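Sample intake sheet
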Amino acid sequence: MNDKRNMRRKPLREQNLMDDFLFDVATENLEACKIILELSLGIRIREIRWKGNQKVIHNLPGKRGIRLDFYVVDDQGRIYDVEMQKRNVGNIPKRTRFYQAIVDAPLLKSGEQGFDQLNRTYIVVICGFDLFGLGKYRYTFENRCLEALDLPIGDECTKIILNTKGTNDAEVEPALVDFLHYVENSTSDNIPEECDGRLKRLQQIIEEIKDSEKMEVELMTMEERDRLIREEGRSEGRSEGQTEGKLLTFIELVCKKLAKGKSLEQIAVELEEDPSTIQQICDIAAGLAPDCDAYDILNKLLEEA
């Protein structure tokens, strides 16, 4: 039986876009984001820019915020939130509902009476599994009237669930099929000779990342930090749960400061901690239920260690 605590991240050269580290690094590149959007949605976009230049959106004090994989707006004001989901941990439909609400909330100023300033929004989840079991590469959802299915409510929010395990090749554009296969196996060997030129460009960006000594060092640094956390948990945690208690207190402090609207950088300075550690806590919280607490985050942290 494999011990999850002994599991390590794959070397950078072996990672795929489905893996968190490579996807996070790749989507720091706006060109890569644009390609992913175009291939996922089957559209063309003239240009995009960061929305608010942040991936973390805070909710009301004491309520849960979210960390987005990437969050951009195009030249026509359309907002895109794209998430990568490697494993089926459940509740994705309600998570997209929560994401929609949190993404919408900052779009209106305090006291604004109308809702015309709400942008058209697309929430995209790329899954390494078939969430609905119908073999579709792409599942597109909009709110419609049950009594007249051709009547949309017009809220201008579209949710798209992509499935790398799709089988309906004849029903979708080849560029989507090639892209989703590439997400699972991000190597030059998985780039068809006659594929869309945008996918070839995405592969070039991925290769540059995999060849980067800086990115390799960053991955190794993350591995070392995680190893130290595991070692600390094994050596001190055996003694009356001291480490777990310290971690729980630390997580509670982070959650309280996030609820007050403080940035990751501010929290890191105030707690004299590396920003990546604060980010790790935010990432775990974003993957849990909206009503999760510090104890839930601690358990998930120890589980992943």
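Comment: Strands lie at 48-50, 56-57, 66-67, 70-74, 79-85, 121-127, 138-141, 144-145, 148-152, 157-163. The longest helix spans residues 213-236.
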